[in-house]
Specification:
Shape: globular
Number of strands: 21
Number of helices: 10
Structural class: alpha+beta
C-alpha cells in the first residue's frame, strides 16, 4: 500500500522505467565457462556459452568442402552489406554450430573495452572470425594461430572480445581488441589454461600480466605494449604490461554487471574458499578475482548445467527474494538494467540465466572417442533456467529441423526456440508455482539424454 503522498513518486518511477525500456538499446551480454580435462569428471574439455541477445537463433551446419586455388569467400554483415573477401584454403572442415569435426569448439563474450579501438574499415567481425577459424583449425592451439593470422591479414572489425577455445586435450583463453579506425590487424593475447583449472568470463577482459617468453602457454600479437604506451594506457617504467588495465578499464557499474557472474561461478566451484565481494561491487583498490581457479571437485556435465543456471540463489543478491523480486518470485528483470530517479543511479543485478538468451551450449571434447562422436554440443534455446540441453554430435550431417526454423517476428510451434520461449514467458505469470513443474520435466528429459 502507498499513501497519497507516496503515490506520485512511485508512479514517477514506473513511468521513468517504462520510458527507459522503450529507449534502451540491446545490452552487451554472454557468459562463458571453460574447464581442462583434469578438472572434469570424465576427462573431457568443456566449454560453455550463453549467447544473449534479442534474436532468434537458427542452428547451422557448414559441410566440409574442397576449394580451387584462388577461391575467395565474400564476407557480409548481418544486414547483407559486403565487408570484403577472404581467401579459402584448399579444404575447410565441417562445422555444427560452434564445434568442428575435429572436436574444436569456440565460445565468446563481448568485453567492449575502449570504444576508440573499433575499426570500421576492417573485414572480419568476431562472429565471422569464429566460423572461419573452425573451418580451418584441427586443434585449439592451431585455432589460436589461425585466428591471429586472419585478423592480421583482413583486419578485426568488432569491439573487444574474449574467446574460449577447446579441443580434446587443451583449453585456451583469447582476448582481442582492435587497432582503431584505419589501423591494421588486432591486438590479442592467448593463454593456455593450466591443468585442473577452470576459467569464467562475463563481458569484461580478465587477463592481467603474462610472460611472452613462455611460448608453450602464451601466444600473443606483437607491438601491443608499444601501442598501449603510445596512447598513455601503459607506463613501461611502472611495471609489467597489464592487458586488463590497458585495454579494459572498468567503472563500478561495469564491474557489477560483469564480475558478479564470475564471482558466482567461482564461489560455487570452490565453496569452502572466501570470495570477497569488494571487486565486483566496485570498491576502489579491491583485489580482482583470479583469472582461473581449481574447483574443489571434478565437474560433471550435470554440474555444468547447474552452474549455467544461476540468479545468485542463496546469496544476498538472490533475485528471487526480497522487495525487488518479481511477481511470485520471478527473477527476471526487464531492460534497461540501470535507471535514474531524483538524481540517483540505480541498477538491477545481471545473472547468468537471463530471459534474453538466444541459445546456449555446453560442449564436450573427448579424446577417448572417435571425433565424430567424441565432440558433443549440449544445445539449448532461450533462458538456461528453462531450457533442456540436447546432445548434438559434431559428426552429424544434418541439424534438427525445429532448431533451424522460425524467426523473431512470428510465433510458430514448429520452432523449438518459440516453444521454450513460450514456456519461460508463461512461467512469469505464477513463477514460484510453475517452476517446480517445469524443472521436474527438465530434469527428467536431461537425465534421459545423459
Amino acid at each position: 500500500p502507498f499513501t497519497l503522498r507516496e503515490r506520485p513518486a512511485f508512479m514517477r518511477l514506473v513511468l521513468q522505467l517504462l520510458l527507459a525500456a522503450i529507449l534502451a538499446a540491446p545490452a552487451v551480454a554472454c557468459t562463458n565457462f571453460i574447464a581442462t580435462p583434469e578438472a572434469t569428471a570424465d576427462g573431457s574439455v568443456m566449454v560453455t556459452y550463453t549467447c544473449d541477445g534479442e534474436f532468434h537463433p537458427r542452428l547451422k551446419r557448414y559441410p566440409a568442402a574442397d576449394h580451387e586455388p584462388g577461391a575467395m569467400e565474400v564476407i557480409k554483415h548481418w544486414d547483407g552489406r559486403v565487408m570484403g573477401e577472404v581467401a579459402l584454403p584448399a579444404h575447410t572442415y565441417a562445422v555444427v554450430n560452434l564445434m568442428n569435426e575435429h572436436q574444436v569448439t569456440i565460445a565468446e563474450t563481448t568485453t567492449g573495452g575502449r570504444e576508440e579501438l573499433v575499426n570500421p574499415d576492417a573485414v572480419i567481425h568476431y562472429w565471422v572470425l569464429m566460423r572461419l577459424v573452425l573451418q580451418r583449425a584441427a586443434t585449439a592451439r592451431e585455432a589460436v594461430v589461425v585466428m591471429g593470422d586472419l585478423v592480421a591479414e583482413y583486419g578485426y572489425r568488432s569491439s573487444g572480445e574474449s574467446f574460449y577455445i577447446g579441443d580434446p586435450e587443451e583449453a585456451w583463453v583469447v582476448e582481442m581488441v582492435g587497432p582503431g579506425p584505419g589501423g591494421e590487424g588486432a591486438h590479442w593475447v592467448a593463454l593456455k589454461v593450466p591443468p585442473g583449472h577452470v576459467v569464467a568470463h562475463a563481458n569484461l577482459g580478465r587477463i592481467g600480466t603474462f610472460d611472452r617468453g613462455d611460448t608453450e602457454n602464451v601466444i600473443a600479437s606483437d607491438g601491443m605494449e608499444e601501442f598501449a604506451a603510445s596512447k598513455g594506457w601503459y607506463d613501461p617504467d611502472a611495471g609489467p604490461f597489464n592487458w586488463r588495465e590497458a585495454f579494459h578499464p572498468a567503472d563500478p557499474q561495469k564491474l557489477r554487471y560483469t564480475e558478479t557472474r564470475v564471482w558466482s561461478l567461482y564461489r560455487r566451484c570452490a565453496p569452502s574458499r572466501e570470495w570477497p565481494m569488494d571487486h565486483h561491487r566496485g570498491v576502489e583498490g579491491a583485489e580482482p578475482l583470479p583469472l582461473w581457479i581449481k574447483p574443489e571437485k571434478k565437474l560433471s556435465v550435470a554440474d555444468f548445467f547447474e552452474l549455467m543456471r544461476d540468479h545468485y540463489e542463496g546469496t544476498e543478491f538472490d533475485m528471487t527474494e526480497g522487495v525487488d523480486a518479481g511477481p511470485y518470485g520471478t527473477p527476471n528483470r526487464w531492460r534497461p538494467m540501470g535507471w535514474e530517479l531524483d538524481g540517483e543511479q540505480y541498477t538491477w543485478e545481471r545473472p547468468i540465466s537471463a530471459q534474453q538468451t538466444g541459445f546456449s551450449m555446453v560442449c564436450q571434447s573427448r579424446d577417448w572417442l572417435p571425433d565424430a562422436v567424441g565432440g558433443v554440443s549440449w544445445y539449448g534455446l532461450d533462458d538456461t533456467w528453462f531450457t533442456c540441453w540436447t546432445p548434438l554430435y559434431c559428426g552429424i550431417d544434418a541439424v534438427p529441423v525445429s532448431y533451424a526454423t522460425g524467426g523473431l517476428g512470428k510465433f510458430t510451434w514448429d520452432s523449438a526456440w518459440w516453444v521454450f520461449n513460450f514456456v519461460s514467458n508463461v512461467a512469469n505469470l505464477k513463477y514460484s508455482y510453475m517452476i517446480e513443474d517445469i524443472q521436474t520435466v527438465q530434469a527428467q528429459l536431461e537425465g534421459e539424454a545423459m
